[in-house]
Design a protein that fits this description.
Keywords: DNA-binding, Transcription, Transcription regulation
Protein name: TetR family transcriptional regulator
CATH class: Mainly Alpha
CATH architecture: Orthogonal Bundle
Order of helices and strands: HHHHHHHHH
Number of strands: 0
GO molecular function: DNA binding
CATH superfamily: Tetracycline Repressor, domain 2
Largest sheet: none
Shape: elongated
Number of helices: 9
Organism: Marinomonas ushuaiensis DSM 15871
Length: 176
């Protein structure tokens, strides 16, 4: 339980401060634990980053999943609407995973955590849309919104939804 609480606090701290600014002492304060307790659960700053990313991953997929129907196209619309809320509320500086890769480009643990997260999102989009044939395109739209968010804000979502609508209309026409 304490380990999960620390991971949640680390996620919030890295989301607010980025990865360069908070030293371990600041992270300890953000987690409201002793340095010994923090290091007991996460023995390095990189382990703290991975814990934050894994916690966020679970939280993000649960957020997207909540209340989805069995209708693929409706799910896509809902997922992208939720992505907008997520970015506004949780990721105003862009995707935390990609920010972690930028801050720690040579760290294998962080790289692996990010790759696993991205692959899960890719599979989630394919499954919930019921369109495995469009999985790569849907993933690129999702990632494009996450990357462009700090610059375009809601315009990124609007553009992705327009592209999605065009894509689905085109795909329906070619199936006939």
């Amino acid at each position: 339980m304490l380990k999960q609480q620390i991971a949640a606090s680390l996620e919030l701290a890295f989301s607010q401060y980025g990865f360069a600014e908070p030293n371990v002492d600041k992270l300890k304060t953000a987690c409201n634990v002793s340095l010994r307790t923090l290091y007991k659960h996460y023995p390095s700053k990189e382990a703290m980053v991975v814990a934050a990313l894994e916690y966020r991953h679970q939280r993000y997929l649960a957020y997207l999943e909540n209340g989805l129907s069995n209708e693929g196209e409706q799910n896509l619309s809902t997922i992208f609407q939720r992505l907008e809320v997520w970015m506004t509320d949780n990721a105003p500086h862009g995707c935390l995973s990609m920010n972690a890769i930028a801050a720690f480009p040579d760290n294998a643990m962080i790289d692996q955590a990010v790759k696993e997260h991205k692959e899960s999102v890719h599979q989630f989009l394919a499954a919930k849309s019921h369109r495995a044939d469009l999985a790569n395109i849907l993933f690129l739209l999702h990632e494009g919104v996450s990357s462009a968010w700090p610059i375009l804000g809601t315009e990124a979502i609007t553009s992705a939804q327009t592209a999605l609508s065009t894509l689905m209309t085109t795909k329906h026409q070619t199936k006939r």
